[in-house]
Amino acid sequence: MKIYTRGGDQGKTSVIGGRRFKHDLRIHAYGALDEVNSFIGQARVICERSELDVLKPQLLTIQHELFDCGSDLATVKEDAVLKVQPAMIEQLEAWIDAYTEKSPQLERFILPGGSELAASLHVCRTETRRAERAIVELKQEEPIHEPVLQYVNRLSDYFFAAARFVNHSLNVSDVEYERSAIVFKE
């Protein structure tokens, strides 16, 4: 099998149910998810070097689910079967809640960083937020499968909670933004 098809040589690419220019908002949206997925792959490698194996299977699951999100965003065919389901969002919420419960209470904004793994997860978080903005931009122009946006929104929260859990587990303090007011209240 050849890796190249020459199908994009004129600036278009295939989506499920048609073809679009490569600068199309839909292509930007699922391309941004592909970038997030690559950063997650990097975080998984860093995870293998850390003491926190609990994250590895979660990150792998998320990588598969991001492919599902990308597939749903790449679908313009009206009768297509879509992959992202509410249960996927509920699982993210359960992981977020567990990590939040195991981390110190948060009052102020924190700076991204700490341990190598936490810093990597913060990169995943910010890239996820960027992808979310691309999906919202697409949603303003054409319909999308709504659970994709909900999943991606929750995913950035997952990375934040996981990064804080990692730092706490490795006895690395989060660094509070020094000019932050108290913004998180119970």
TrEMBL record:
UniProt-recorded name of the protein: Corrinoid adenosyltransferase
Pfam families, per database record: Cob_adeno_trans
Enzyme class: transferase
Entry EC no(s): 2.5.1.17
Keyword Mitochondrion: no
Family matches, as PANTHER family: CORRINOID ADENOSYLTRANSFERASE, CORRINOID ADENOSYLTRANSFERASE MMAB
GO MF, one annotated term: corrinoid adenosyltransferase activity
Superkingdom per UniProt: Bacteria
SUPFAM superfamilies named in the record: Cobalamin adenosyltransferase-like
UniProt xrefs under InterPro entries: CblAdoTrfase-like, CblAdoTrfase-like_sf, PduO-typ
